[in-house]
UniProtKB/TrEMBL annotation:
<dbReference type="InterPro" id="IPR017861">
    <property type="entry name" value="KAE1/TsaD"/>
</dbReference>
<dbReference type="GO" id="GO:0005506">
    <property type="term" value="F:iron ion binding"/>
</dbReference>
<feature type="binding site">
    <location>
        <position position="275"/>
    </location>
    <ligand>
        <name>substrate</name>
    </ligand>
</feature>
<comment type="similarity">
    <text>Belongs to the KAE1 / TsaD family.</text>
</comment>
<feature type="binding site">
    <location>
        <position position="118"/>
    </location>
    <ligand>
        <name>Fe cation</name>
    </ligand>
</feature>
<feature type="domain" description="Gcp-like">
    <location>
        <begin position="27"/>
        <end position="309"/>
    </location>
</feature>
<keyword id="KW-0819">tRNA processing</keyword>
<keyword id="KW-0408">Iron</keyword>
<keyword id="KW-0963">Cytoplasm</keyword>
<dbReference type="GO" id="GO:0002949">
    <property type="term" value="P:tRNA threonylcarbamoyladenosine modification"/>
</dbReference>
<feature type="binding site">
    <location>
        <position position="303"/>
    </location>
    <ligand>
        <name>Fe cation</name>
    </ligand>
</feature>
<dbReference type="InterPro" id="IPR022450">
    <property type="entry name" value="TsaD"/>
</dbReference>
<dbReference type="InterPro" id="IPR017860">
    <property type="entry name" value="Peptidase_M22_CS"/>
</dbReference>
<keyword id="KW-0479">Metal-binding</keyword>
<feature type="binding site">
    <location>
        <position position="182"/>
    </location>
    <ligand>
        <name>substrate</name>
    </ligand>
</feature>
<feature type="binding site">
    <location>
        <position position="114"/>
    </location>
    <ligand>
        <name>Fe cation</name>
    </ligand>
</feature>
<comment type="function">
    <text>Required for the formation of a threonylcarbamoyl group on adenosine at position 37 (t(6)A37) in tRNAs that read codons beginning with adenine. Is involved in the transfer of the threonylcarbamoyl moiety of threonylcarbamoyl-AMP (TC-AMP) to the N6 group of A37, together with TsaE and TsaB. TsaD likely plays a direct catalytic role in this reaction.</text>
</comment>
Length: 334
């Protein structure tokens, strides 16, 4: 059979990324241009700046991705692009580029869900077996997704307030650490030799939803109380307490979901999958319970276009294409 080359575009937040993926799993190129340095001084992503930066970068990224893959544009079988969720202005830049390419090359266009991308990042390096459970943890998402068979998603739990990465970033900010703060808090937590106990937000006994805003407030209270007493807050011990609470709840709910849904595998994905404590605890629990744990390499955990190529390929197989007038979907559900 003829190889299928998908040119994939991801611009949902602050990374401009273009990839060429062959047959849904072989990454021939995965160009990523991060805007973090531009947004850092604002302490978070500024949507308008994100859109402008994508406009400046996207054309060059497309050229580079094709060149690095060693193919020509005429070899491309279809264009996959993130349709949502994400920042609407940022999404639109990728979508307009994708539509233009699809029209010029006269090939199919595939609107792709960003979370399906994070989940199918696992397909780039491993074989997914169904039914499985995915724990998606990033700056924008905290979701438990049951996948009955290929491409059949059921969202069983989600955050009711902050995403877990967002909570990390806010706690880091309170500790005067630079954006994005997740890795800094992770490091502090791992080095701490004391721990400040923090609450766990389990919500209703049968719920797979998450909530991190109460925990975030608890952290801010401890920090402010120390400062009011004229003391320097014990940031490592606070970070440790925060991280333990996050991990307890994420791992507890994920393992309960794996059991209840008889999942053959647990898939961990999204930027927070880089967290050392979370990886260690999930690895240990999955080993103890005999459940294979899949975690993509880091370059496929944070936002990237290769994962969109992997998810887009599922739609290619179904010949499930988008029309040229499809729109961005900032709060797209799975
Ligand atoms: O997936 P991602 O690159 O972008 C989104 O789609 O949001 O995730 C970025 C998020 C940020 O909030 C960042 O602080 C968090 O992932 N993060 C971490 C770690 N590394 C990145 N959070 C906790 N521990 C880490 N080691
Ligand atoms: Zn993401």
């Amino acid at each position: 059979d003829k190889p299928i080359y998908i040119l994939a575009i991801e611009t949902s937040c602050d990374e401009t990324s273009v990839a060429i993926v062959r047959d849904g799993h072989a990454v021939l190129s995965n160009m990523i241009s991060s805007q973090i340095d531009v947004h850092r001084r604002f302490g978070g992503v500024v949507p308008e700046i994100a859109s402008r930066k994508h406009v400046e970068t996207i054309t060059v990224m497309i050229e580079q991705a094709v060149e690095e893959a060693g193919i020509s544009l005429d070899d491309v079988s279809a264009i996959a692009v993130t349709q949502g969720p994400g920042l609407v202005g940022a999404l639109l830049v990728g979508i307009v580029a994708a539509k233009s390419l699809a029209m010029a090359l006269n090939i199919p266009l595939i609107g792709t869900h960003h979370i399906a991308g994070h989940i199918y990042a696992n397909q780039l390096t491993a074989k997914i077996e169904y039914p499985c459970m995915a724990l998606v943890v990033s700056g924008g998402h905290t979701e438990l997704v049951h996948i009955e068979s290929e491409g059949q998603f059921k969202l069983i739990g989600r955050t009711r307030d902050d995403a877990v990465g967002e909570a990390y970033d806010k706690v880091a900010r309170a500790a005067n650490l630079p954006y994005p703060g997740g890795p800094h808090i992770d490091k502090l937590a791992c080095e701490a030799d004391e721990v400040v106990a923090m609450p766990r937000s389990w919500l209703e006994a049968d719920s797979y939803d998450f909530s991190f805003s109460g925990l975030k407030s608890a952290v801010l209270n401890v920090v402010n109380q120390s400062k009011m007493k004229g003391n320097e807050p014990n940031y490592p011990a606070i970070a440790r307490g925060f991280q333990e609470s996050v991990i307890d709840v994420l791992v507890g709910k994920a393992m309960r979901a794996v059991k209840e849904y008889d999942a053959k595998q647990l898939l961990l994905c999204g930027g927070v999958a880089a967290n050392k404590g979370l990886r260690a605890e999930l690895t240990a629990r999955c080993e103890a319970e005999g459940v294979p744990l899949l975690v993509p390499p880091m370059e496929y955990c944070t936002d990237n276009a290769a994962m969109i190529g992997a998810a887009g390929y599922l739609k290619w197989k179904q010949q499930d294409f988008s029309s040229l007038d499809f729109n961005a979907h900032p709060s797209f559900s799975l």
